[in-house]
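so my prof wants the structure for this chain in the tokens format not the other one, which i didnt know existed until like an hour ago. anyway here's the sequence
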Amino acid sequence: MESRYISDEFKNRVWALFSAQLHKTNTRNAYWTAVCRICDYLKKDFLEITAADAQEYFDMLSSGGITKKNGDRYTVASIYIFYSQLRAVSNFIIENNSTFHDLAHKAPFTFVKIKEPSQTVELSYMLSIKDIGRILTALKGTDLYFITNLAFRLGLSSNNIIKLRPSDVQVAKNDRLLLEIRPDSPLKSSRHLVVPEDMAADLQKYLDTVPLSCKTLFHNTRYEPLTRKTLDYNLKKATEKAGYKGVTLQRIRTSAGHHMAKAGATPTSIALQLGINERHVTRFTGSLDELEGQASEKLKID
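here's what i got, hopefully its the right format
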């Protein structure tokens, strides 16, 4: 899809850098289509869109004034996806002000009011601390033991884990072990997470077994980097043997966010730990409404 309203400046400067972060063609196409649609509706370049323009566009989507080609209305979930895509492009411009300081862009999507779909994760989806403990016991002595620990204890995503390099395991001045989590975009900064002391010794021992020829911390039998698909397949297969079905790293990480919230961690600290936007923390905390008077728990697994 193309829009005649999109300027060469936006396409060649902003989109060229933003789309470089999106590794899948389908994802790039979805974001580009969202940009073209709003520019076509408003008959404006993306850089010219105002807050009033953005609100008008989403009001039309929500009211059915803009529909699919077959005449059906867009669902609340679809509209929210469009909003998230457009806001991500806008935020990219704002966050990289040193690169785009000459562009007259005023973050028009920041205060758009739309109905948000329910994102609360069902309590039944969460794995308990005991579940995680049993899973780790079953995985002891394998790479998956460390991978699962990193997903639960540090809240790392599959993408974070498969990109970890041996050099990302670092020692701080106070001798605590750190993990450097590198961002997908070269325009963003890395974040550093402290490895819990009870995990540090095991992780250091594992690090000593990684061949010097390996570019990544975790690898397959051919010493090549793991893929997300392989990682989840191996985890699912191993945990099924331990009596657990449907266990993925995403489920483990979501459970970590839930238990952090139960332990009283603030939304800001959870967001920083997991590397997500603070507004998305409600998907972990919403399920706490189903709990009554449970004591807070730490993520340490005995």
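also thought this was worth mentioning. The two ends are 54 Å apart (CA to CA).
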